[in-house]
Design brief:
The chain is of the alpha/beta class. It has 9 helices and 7 strands. The chain has a 4-stranded parallel beta sheet with strand order 1-2-4-6. The chain has a 3-stranded parallel beta sheet with strand order 3-5-7.
Length: about 220
């Protein structure tokens, strides 16, 4: 099921009516922190960001804004760690994700977690298919030792990174058509057609209908992941 729902920002503020990638109201109102998301491409950087973000979520601010600045591409494991922290946050917290720059690969999963998603009109998104990543991983420098003899029955050595990336793609597929868009440049207009950018009135209407009639809510797909 497509998770393209958006929640109201604090006091009815709409990112669509503001400068893309900028939320002055969030900055000025106390208790609504704004964090720049690092690429978390080292364990130390990931730990530092998690030590900042996760304790902040425990305090239950009304709005948390996460900004992606500079061409941004997280490793799969880092994206899954941040994704888990955001999806298991205490209730009542609205997460606003702002793409000031191109968002690439697993970073797109973190941007998609936002209840309200904002993007610079000239920014773009892109992620590779699993096959493209696998071929890239297989390109070893000539001096790197061939460890194929360590695996049984001549099976290729399992890659933790590929398994993590497979999980990233599976989670992203809940929001957008992964098979159709892998390897392509994704524009804000394409995401807007799916209701994934800004604040969609259609999402509000759908949310009201589901609230009035719980039987319209489909089965829990999260357990199938």
């Amino acid at each position: 099921m497509n998770k393209k729902t958006s929640q109201d920002t604090a006091e009815g503020a709409s990112p669509a009516a503001q400068k893309p990638g900028h939320s002055e109201e969030s900055e000025l109102r106390p208790g609504n922190p704004v964090l720049t998301v690092p690429e978390c491409d080292t364990p130390a950087e990931l730990a530092k960001f998690c030590d900042e973000l996760f304790p902040l979520l425990v305090t239950r601010p009304k709005v948390v804004t996460l900004r992606f600045i500079g061409p941004h591409e997280m490793p799969p494991d880092s994206a899954l760690v941040v994704h888990h922290g955001l999806t298991t946050r205490p209730p009542g917290i609205t997460v606003v994700t702002q793409a000031w720059s191109p968002v690439l690969g697993p970073s797109l999963l973190v941007w998609l977690v936002g209840d309200v998603r904002d993007v610079r009109p000239t920014a773009s998104f892109r992620f590779r298919s699993l096959g493209q990543v696998a071929r890239f991983k297989q390109r070893r420098p000539p001096w790197e030792e061939d460890r194929g003899w360590m695996t049984s029955d001549n099976e290729p050595e399992p890659s933790v990174g590929l398994e993590d990336y497979k999980t990233v793609l599976r989670l992203m597929d809940e929001y957008l058509p992964v098979d159709q868009w892998a390897g392509k440049i994704i524009t804000p207009a394409m995401l807007r057609e799916l209701g994934l950018v800004g604040h969609s009135p259609l999402d509000d209407l759908l949310g009201q209908c589901l609230a009035r009639d719980p039987s319209l809510v489909p089965g829990d797909s999260a357990g199938e992941i």
